[in-house]
Amino acid sequence: MLTLGIESTCDETGCAIVRNGSEILANVISSQIDLHNEFGGVVPELACRRHIDVMLPVIDEAVKQAQITLTDIDLIAVAHGPGLIGALLIGLHAAKGLALTLQKPLVGVNHVEAHLYAAIMSLQEPIEFPAIGVVLSGGHTALVTMHSPDRFSLISQTVDDAIGEAFDKAAKILGLPYPGGPQIEMLAETGKSTHVFKPGTVKGRPLDFSFSGLKTAVLYAARGQNGNEESRVLTDIEKANIAASFQHIAFSDVIKKTLQAASQGGSIHVVFGGGVTNNQKLREMFGQLAPQLKLHWPNVGLSLDNAAMIAGLGHHCYLREKQDACLHLEAVTRLPFSNTTRGPQ
Ligand code: KG4
Ligand code: ZN
Question: Could you list the residue range(s) of the whole structural domain that residue 50 is in?
Fold first, then answer.
């Protein structure tokens, strides 16, 4: 079964062709980093216009790379949320147009759930469920119980910034370009964790995350106790030490809470998703601090936003539901996990 997946939730336009939910025949991504760089973050209106410009060429390129024709496609999958409304609509309408023209079924996929599926489609051998899912992206930070590749219950999430967002904001404070995550990772390699920042805690919900305090700690370290010493000039070493300290605390916090969730859920399999999982230091620290867990990371090219994960999860969702969403499918800016029951922590 061949699925064509479309991704346009934020600032990447993607189209992928995936066979039977895991064999990637093409995974084309057009990044907009150049476009948003000068603004230090994603400008929704610009993102939307760029999606319009590149959506059809990206689809054409995916079909070409997969060496198929559009009529070979059995299913169209599209990320219909969560994300920026204008950006989502471009992908959704392209998907509906294809489904109607080709007379093929259409399935809507939750972008955040698909991030976890990226690790599932990277597996060499099947894993045991339930597993703990760890989402670390620019818009979301959550721990979930994965009952299957497409069934979840929420354990905990961030009460303020997502971890990727905190990386981007910390980078901005240190004068680094957008997106800040890879920049912080690079800078941290040359620094030492000399600052004693505190991880965020949430009263009564020990597994929830909070990253806004950590971001403020970076601001104070860079610009003085009130954060208003704008003219303060940091040396390269000072910047690197702040980056290393921030990264170390953020990742230690994620690891500690993941270990707790795994022990409470009686699961040793941990599935990771989201752009921050591209960070090699995160992978290294998890390996060192959680040797008792079996860690499943997305393959190269599947951590950041991509359409292969959308096509892959779309395949599973369609086989489960056997329902063609077609013209009824809507773009949803906030889309919770499929099952949002939250238990005590
Ligand atoms: O999952 P993603 O591609 O998009 C969302 O769904 O949000 O994640 C993007 C986020 C950005 O905040 C970016 O700074 C962060 O992932 N990121 C990283 C790294 N690469 C990307 N954060 C830390 N280290 C990295 N190497
Ligand atoms: Zn994403």
Answer: 2-117+302-321
Closest ligand 1 atom to Cα of 273:
1
Q: 296 by DSSP, 3-state: which?
A: strand
Nearest 5°: phi and psi at 324? -90, 115
32 lines ligand 1 (CB under 6 A): no
In-domain check, residue 344: no
Whether residue 167 sits in one domain with residue 63: no
Determine if ligand 1 sits within 6 Å of the CB of residue 110. no
Pocket test for ligand 1, best of 109, 157, 187, 304 (most atoms within 8 A of CB): 304
> What is the Cα–Cα distance from 281 to 283, expressed in whole angstroms?
5
List pLDDT tens digits, range 127-160: 999 999 999 999 999 999 999 999 999 999 999 9
Per residue in 98-134, pLDDT (tens digit) is 999 999 999 999 999 999 999 999 998 889 999 999 9
Distance CA 305, CA 300 (A): 12
Per DSSP, which regions of the chain are E strands? Answer: 2-7, 12-19, 23-31, 75-81, 106-110, 131-136, 141-148, 151-157, 269-273, 294-296
Torsion of CA 246, 139, 38, 190, to 10 degrees: 20
